[in-house]
Design a protein that fits this description.
By secondary structure, this protein is mainly α. The longest helix has 20 residues. It is elongated and about 120 Å long.
């Protein structure tokens, strides 16, 4: 029981001091008390063998036998002979119940032996006889914390809070009690005292930071571990946990920096590699995410999650072949996994393998017929296959199941446009825009139909809005150039068409992936 062992040495020496005060005056027959005094000195020096010999000399005198038994019991506890030590201490107390040091050591012995109820009973007996006994009060505080009685733990700690707050272990217990009781302000005040401590080992700093974070004080936990870094106590575990605290605070930049620091300590750590990749993907740093996933994949080539993450990021970067290979491998490792199947279907669609994509999506839809995402996916494949009737049927069902989406109604308007119904398409695009006023492709679609209807100024205005929302849209840029030609603005048209040519490269693949991924 490592937790009990930490405070044990200090409590033991306190108990030894109490036993020294209990040594009786010398008797006329023999000065056995001198043996006890010598035994106490030797115990304080850590010379247990010699102390045992001296205490044994006092066992024959009834006046000193109880204290001698108590000292021998304390020695046995230090030697790890818990059962024997407990027995000797019990005998000493049976002979003299006023031996406070013996009772304190008996409580510690029970704790070391795992007999927590008996230990608590003895500590309470000590505190009843000596309310100022710090060791007993601290032990009872730990017991209440262990049972989740945080308010009682705080009550017990009140008389010794100043002393407790001067040690790492004491501060940890106080903060744990206040956080458990919901006293966030008191816990924050106590946490500020941590900076006054010096020479605290790394493990205790991490334990304190974890307790703070568990209670919701992530910023205070970060302060503790950042100071540990400045004090030269950095390690893989510290960096990884610090990154986690930053992540809980929504600070992706510092979280990533510390996960990368963890990778610096252990460049084969798959959890750290994956976290860097995950944050990079979330921040749109896809090349960085892919680089870290490549490293993770080398470490655990048969990890389905790593293969899946790699495939997803590779697909978003249009590395279609590698993405398909990784997603297929992930599905082999985790057959039937829905997300993997979905992304594999997307990869096939991006490779223009529409039949293969449809096979995957339709299989998922057969298992989940009320899923709007899957109806959208199937409809988007049919749209790419120019099968407008089937596309419209699935897109309408997707929209019925989930009215709060943008791409299903957008592509339904696109289908009307491709069928030549520009008035109907314009009305549908306008409706999409009313609900989603920052959806650039719908402004573009509306402008295309308006141009076909001869509404050139309206079309120009909507093309320009589309490009404000998505300056990289080659299609909108080209369509605006063509419109400017029709309007007789040739110089402006030529400049716009030159921009369109620069944007066109690789857009088709990106649009296919985007089309297949999500209806929202």
């Amino acid at each position: 029981m490592a937790v009990a062992a930490r405070p044990y040495r200090a409590a033991l020496m306190s108990a030894v001091a109490a036993l020294a005060l209990a040594i009786p005056a010398p008797s006329a027959a023999a000065d056995t008390s001198s043996y006890l005094e010598q035994a106490v000195r030797l115990m304080r020096d850590g010379n247990l063998e010699a102390a045992e010999a001296e205490a044994g000399q006092a066992m024959g005198d009834p006046a000193t036998a109880p204290v001698a038994q108590a000292l021998l019991g304390s020695i046995r506890l230090q030697q790890g002979k818990h059962a024997e030590g407990i027995e000797l201490l019990e005998r000493a107390l049976a002979a003299d119940s006023n031996l406070l040091g013996a009772r304190l050591n008996l409580a510690q012995g029970y704790e070391l032996a795992g007999e927590l109820d008996s230990s608590e009973e003895q500590f309470r007996a000590v505190l009843q006889r000596a309310p100022g006994n710090h060791a007993a009060r601290m032990a009872l505080m730990r017991a209440e914390l262990r049972k989740g009685n945080h308010r009682e733990a705080i009550r017990l700690a009140e008389p010794i809070e100043d002393r407790l707050s001067q040690s790492p272990r004491g501060l940890l217990q106080l903060v744990t009690g206040h956080l458990g009781a919901g006293n966030i302000g008191a816990a924050r005040r106590l946490a500020a005292k941590w900076s006054a401590l010096s020479g605290v080992p790394r493990d205790q700093r991490m334990e304190f930071a974890y307790a703070l974070s568990k209670g919701g004080l992530n910023r205070e936990a970060i302060t503790v571990l950042e100071r540990a870094k400045r004090d030269g106590l950095g390690s893989y575990e510290l960096a990884f946990n610090l990154a986690g605290f930053y992540l809980l605070e929504g600070d992706l930049g510092d979280a990533s920096a510390n996960y990368e620091l963890a990778v610096g300590y252990d460049d084969r750590s798959v959890p750290a590699l994956r976290q860097v990749a995950r944050i990079a993907e979330e921040r749109g740093e896809l090349e960085k995410a892919l680089a870290y996933l490549v490293r993770a994949k080398l470490e655990v080539p048969d990890d389905a999650d790593v293969q899946f993450s790699f495939g997803r990021v590779a697909l978003r970067l249009d590395v279609i072949e590698d993405a398909t290979t990784a997603l297929a491998r992930a599905l082999d490792l985790r057959p039937g996994h829905r997300a993997t199947r979905y992304w594999l279907g997307t990869a096939r669609g991006a490779a223009r393998q529409f039949d293969g994509a449809l096979e995957v999506y339709q299989g998922l839809l057969d298992q989940n017929p009320s899923d709007p995402q899957l109806h959208y996916a199937v409809g988007s494949v049919y749209l790419l296959m120019v099968d407008f009737d089937r596309a419209a049927a699935h897109l309408q069902e997707s929209l019925r199941l989930d009215p709060d989406q943008v791409l299903s109604p957008h592509y339904l308007a696109t289908i009307s446009q491709k069928r030549g119904d520009h008035e109907g398409a314009a009305a549908m695009f306008a409706k999409v825009i009313s609900g989603h006023p920052r959806h650039g492709p719908s402004y573009e679609g509306l402008a295309v139909s308006q141009a076909r209807l001869g509404l050139y100024e309206d079309a120009r205005r909507n093309f320009e809005t589309a490009l404000e929302l998505d300056p990289d849209s080659a299609r909108a840029s080209y369509q605006l150039g063509q419109l400017l030609v029709r309007m007789g603005l040739r110089d402006q048209a030529q400049a716009q068409l030159a921009v369109a040519r620069q944007l066109r490269e690789d857009e088709e693949k990106r649009l296919i992936v985007k089309t297949l991924l999500n209806p929202h």
